[in-house]
Amino acid sequence: MGDLNIGWAVPTEFPETGWSLDSIDQHLKQARAEIPAWDDPEQTRLGFAMAAPHPEAVRVLGDWAAVNTNNVGVHTRFGEGKGGTRRLEKEALAVLASLYRAGAIDGHLTSGASEATLAALRIARNLLRTEGHQIRVVASDLCHASVAKAAEILDIDLVRLSPGPKWTLTREQVRQAADEAIAAGVTGIIVVATAGYYNSGFADPVDEIAADLRDLAFQRPGQVRCFVHVDAAHGGFVFPFTAPDLPFDFRSPGVHSMAVDPHKAGLMPYSCGALLVRKGLLEHVTRIDPHTRIPDETVLGSRPGATAAALWATLHTLGRTGYTDLTTRCLELRDRLAAAVRTADPDALLVPAPHAPVVSAAFSHRGGRLPPELCERYRLVPLTLPDPHGDGGPRLFYHFYASDSPTDPQITNFARHLAEATARARATVSDGRGSGRSITSEVVADTRTHTDCFRHFVVHPEGRRDPQVPGYSFHTFTHRSATGEQMQDIRWGQARAGGDLWVYAPDLKNPFANELMGVRTEHYFLEVLDPHQQQLSLVGAIHATMLLPGSLRVLLNFEPDGTFRSAEYKALGEHGTDELQIFPDAVTAKIGKNAAGFLRPGSDDYSFSIDTSAEISVHRTDGTSAPVVLTARHNADVLLPRRRHLRREQFRRFPNRFFDTELEIAAGRTWTGTAYLAELLAPTGIGTVLAARSATAGLCTVDGRVSDSGLHLALTALSEPRTEAVELSAPWDLGRCLHDALPRLDVRDPVLLGIEQVVDFAERAHEVFTREGLPAGLVIAGAGQ
After folding, report:
1. Residue 424 Cα distances to 345, 421, 427, 434, 483, angstroms
2. Residue 721 CB neighbour total at 10 angstroms
3. Is the pLDDT of residue 159 over 70?
4. Is 88 helix (H, G, I), strand (E, B) or coil?
5. CA distance 515 to 506
6. CA separation (Å) from 721 to 696, 717, 718, 781?
7. 147: number of CA atoms within 13 Å, CB side?
8. Which segment of 52-56, 217-221, 454-458, 724-728 scores lowest on mean pLDDT?
9. pLDDT over 70 for what percent of the chain?
10. SS3 letters for 285-333?
11. Smallest Cα–Cα separation from 527: which of 539, 518, 537?
């Protein structure tokens, strides 16, 4: 919850002097406590290929870090890698070459298999372009994200092939893709095969694919060139010990490069990957540093020598026997996980990987989805795959990765929690809940059209509604339909301003117990938040939206003790709003504010994004001080295009708050005069011209002034033909007037409230705002009120 005080990344002061060792240790201890230990009974990493690093790897890495060696360059060539960590890197790679059935090879350590794949595709692109080939990358749709990232960076075409019921590429698929590429004029074909898919543990038939492509190149000498890269990030430290005869490596002549990840099953700490490549290929990416004259074929350049020492030590500490014992234990643990799934759901479809410590499971209850709290606790990620035992249609699978790290208590807890979750899911379906019926009446549905808040149709899950309890997450909202807590409403009577008055809540018998209780008329709606939502809310405990003619609406916010906090006057545009936020002692203009709630992919959880182009805040202080700029942050250039919100996939874990420009100004209450915005900005890094993307004026310049009467802004569109400037203007006395005039309702303990009290407060608030809330000095979006 700590990030809610700010909600977005802002610069902090560089320390003037060094902290004391006690202060540093205390801060680091707190941060370390936020990371679950490998034997933590509350969190177990079953959905990711992660394991505790070997103690020897940790010891050597720490010892050699003090040497601070830079292993820049490649050290596998004859005459190189003669001493120190460069020699250890060369020796470690030579050991891996033997493990992967290679002859003499080149290669280097990387930050991980992602970098290794990028480096391999860079080599392939350069060598194919040397002969003038048009290039295409072919890979499975289930390949690691690094393949698509590398293709984007290298600006080469990528074709992704749909996985069949076996979840792997077939030689026929790849050959057809190659034939289609050649028919389209593409004669340089790069195939990325996977040895150990991250989400299943399966391996492509690397030897068959490589042999077919090699035959194709023989059939069309000088016309077609093929390059095969093997992503063995997952399987590289598994298959040599569980299936030594599996031909996924350099024993196939058509395999040219391989990426492996010692920081997965190899028990190395992050970050440690390796690229292995056949001789004669690295030269296609050789660059000579003009300053040091050092040749370098890597992507990153500088690389830590300590990692090479730690990898060498780990390989020689464990050896083939040690790694075989390790992977054998992992396969046994995989079978225990499979048994836990089968016990929890006898009708689940289990798909264990033949030679890898991964089991995939599709659960039998409707939809097959596991609850978000279980997924977060065990780091589980769902994936839609073809049903390998049915008609090949799509089905939701979860994969469970068995490393050597989970303890017996963790596995026991997992089995119990999974059984409880699947039992609840089956019961939810059998009692008719989750049947898809509407969770709101027309009254509440209409309310939702006037608010950016989505509390009406989502709720924090039972047991995770209190921000103070362990495991609480800021964005663990779940569909109300999944909890059975439907929104109820009832006509309460006649509104004083005319029309029906309705009240609504998840449970009208206990209206203040869960998220919100609301009042709705054709003129306004008002909501009181429960205690947990009051802690979560950034803007108060009571919200009242006043519906006005045209495109203007006003949101009133009240503190938990019932005092007025702010009024948000919103001019609605096609993409967001321009707002004037009125406080008792401040006025804030938000230009181009756009708020959105997103269903996070693969779950019932929601997250949010608040995106504002410019925020100009002026607050009043005691005394006669002239306006002065306290903060002027230029975070983004509005003249360049950008996405207004995060991509949906990013909402798996994170909310978002973003401001292009933030401007904070202070002015004395008794100061008189006028200060122009351009003059105030001139000494700052923003300069005299402030640009923004307005919801009502589009790309515009922002000009205006701070005077003793209030804040006055003019938004002038930059597009042609230009129209009159949009005006945002607010008097200083409006916030104090609303603070003094509006009624109060103490909601710090909502269970003491009655519906009658809230209805009376809502009616009085509407009457007072109608009389006091639209003074002549308020202008927003060109519409004087």
Report:
1. 12, 5, 5, 12, 10
2. 5
3. yes
4. helix
5. 8
6. 15, 9, 9, 18
7. 29
8. 454-458
9. 88
10. HCEECCCCCCEECCCCCCCEHHHHHHHHHHHHHHHHHHHHHHHHHHHHH
11. 518
CA dist 298 → 137, 349, 771 (Å): 21, 44, 71
Q: Which helix (H) or strand (E) holds 524?
A: strand 524-529
Interhelix angle 206-219/171-183, rounded to 10 degrees, is: 30
What is each CA distance from 590 to 24, 572, 714, 728, 732, in whole angstroms?
A: 38, 12, 13, 10, 17
DSSP assignment string, 22-37: HHHHHHHHHHHHTSPP
Single out the residue of 553, 612, 560 nearest to residue 588, CA to CA: 612
Q: How many helices (H) and strands (E) does the chain have?
A: 17, 34
DSSP for residue 509:
T
Among 593, 599, 596, residue whose Cα is nearest residue 611: 593
Cis peptide, bond prior to residue 271, ω within 30 of zero: yes
Q: Name beta bridge partners: 594.
A: 611
Tell me if the bond preceding 262 is cis, omega within 30° of 0.
no
Structure tokens at 191: 């195939």
Model confidence at 594, in pLDDT bands (50, 70, 90)? confident
pLDDT, one tens digit per residue, over 324-351 is 999 999 999 999 999 999 999 999 999 9
DSSP 357-391: SEEEEE-SSTT-PPPHHHHHHHT--EEEEE-TTTT
Q: How confident is the model at residue 431 (pLDDT cuts 50, 70, 90)?
A: very low
470 pLDDT above the threshold of 90: no
Q: Per-residue DSSP letters for 629-640?
A: EEEEEE-S-TTS
**Residue listed under structure tokens 């045209």:** 550
pLDDT tens readout for residues 773-782: 888 888 887 5
- pTM for the structure as a whole: 0.82
Residue 455 — very low, low, confident or very high, per pLDDT cuts 50/70/90? low
3-state helix, strand, coil in the chain (%, to 5): 30, 30, 40
Question: Would you state the pLDDT for residue 475?
Answer: 58
Q: What is the pLDDT of residue 6?
A: 47
Closest CA to 578 of 698, 722, 663: 698
Q: Quote the mean pLDDT of the chain.
A: 88
Phi, psi torsion values for 322, nearest 5 degrees:
-65, -45
Higher pLDDT, residue 379 or 294:
379
- The rounded radius of gyration (Å) of the Cα atoms in the chain is 31
Does residue 198 or residue 431 have the better pLDDT?
A: 198
User: Which amino acid is residue 110, in one-letter code?
Assistant: T
Q: Write out pLDDT tens, residues 608-657.
A: 678 899 999 999 999 999 999 999 999 888 988 877 666 655 655 555 67
- Closest to 282 in 3D by CA, of 138, 82, 87, 126: 126
- Judge contact between 629 and 685, C-beta under 8 A: no
- On whether the CB atoms of residues 259 and 229 are closer than 8 A, the answer is yes
Closest to 503 in 3D by CA, of 493, 514, 515, 518? 518
pLDDT by residue (tens digit) across 610-620?
889 999 999 99
Contact 638/670 with Cβ under 8 angstroms? no
Residue 272: other Cβ atoms inside 10 A:
28
141 CB neighbour count, 10 Å cutoff: 10
Cα distances from 213 to residues 65, 151, 175, 363, in angstroms, run: 44, 20, 7, 39
Give pLDDT, residue 440: 52
pLDDT band at 307 (very low <50, low <70, confident <90, very high): very high
Q: CA-to-CA distance for 380 and 378, rounded, in angstroms?
A: 6
The answer to whether 205 touches 169, Cβ cutoff 8 Å, is yes
How far, rounded to the nearest angstrom, does the alpha carbon of residue 69 sit from its chain's CA centroid?
A: 34
Residue among 268, 251, 234 at smallest CA distance from 143? 234
